[in-house]
Amino acid sequence: MYHFADAEPDRSMKRFVPGPERQREFRDALGRFATGVTVVTTITDEGPVGITANSFSSVSLEPPIVLWSIGRHSRRFPAFERCERFAVHVLGADQIDLSRRFARSGDAFTGLEHDRNEDGVPLLRGCLSRFECERFAAHDGGDHVIMVARVNAASLANGEPLLFAAGGYGRFDRFV
Ligand SMILES: Cc1cc2nc3c(=O)[nH]c(=O)nc-3n(C[C@H](O)[C@H](O)[C@H](O)COP(=O)(O)O)c2cc1C
C-alpha cells in the first residue's frame, strides 16, 4: 500500500492512457482523491441489504439531491439497481468495522442491531449523518450505474469522519 509519508517531495507526474493494461495505475491515480466512507442500505424481498460506498457525493441543495454509484459486477447490484428507496450513512472514524463488514459479501445485517424507517429501509446506528433517499434518476456509468436520489429526510450527529484514500482508512487532520 502507498504511504504518504514515504512519498518524495518530487511532484513530477506520470501521464498515461487508462486501459486494461493500466488499471493499477488508473486506480492509484483515482485513489489520490480522498473521500469519506458511507454504507448504503435498502430493503428487498429477501431482507435488508447494505454496501460500503465511497462514491457518494452531494449534488443539489434545492431540491436536495445526492448521488452514489454501484458497480455492475457487485452481487448486490440487482438489489440496488431496482430499489426505489435507500439510506446513505456517513461513517465516523470509529466505524471501520462497519465499513469492512458491508464491503464483504453476504448478510452483513446478521447480528447487527438497526432500525427501520416508515418505508422499511434499514437505518444503522452511530453514524455521523444519514440521508433517507428516494430514487430520482439512474444513469449509465460504464461498469457502474450512477444512482441519483432525492433526500426525503436527513439526520446529523457530531463526530470525526472516517476517510478513505490510497486504498486505506484514515482520519481528518485539520490545517485551517
Ligand atoms: C472504502 C470502500 C468504498 C467502496 N465504494 C464502493 C462504491 O462506491 N460503489 C461500489 O459499487 N462498490 C464500492 N465498494 C465495494 C463494495 O463495498 C463491495 O465490496 C463490492 O461491491 C463487492 O460486493 P459483492 O461481494 O456483493 O460482489 C467499496 C469498498 C470499500 C472498502
UniProtKB/TrEMBL annotation:
This is Flavin reductase family protein. Belongs to the non-flavoprotein flavin reductase family. Residues 30-171 form the Flavin reductase like domain. Gene3D superfamilies: Electron Transport, Fmn-binding Protein, Chain A (2.30.110.10). SMART domains: Flavin_Reduct. GO terms for molecular function: FMN binding; riboflavin reductase (NADPH) activity. The lineage of its organism: Bacteria, Pseudomonadati, Pseudomonadota, Alphaproteobacteria, Hyphomicrobiales. The keyword Aminoacyl-tRNA synthetase does not apply. Pfam families: Flavin_Reduct (PF01613). PANTHER family: FLAVIN REDUCTASE, FLAVIN-DEPENDENT MONOOXYGENASE, REDUCTASE SUBUNIT HSAB. It comes from the Bacteria. Keywords: Oxidoreductase.
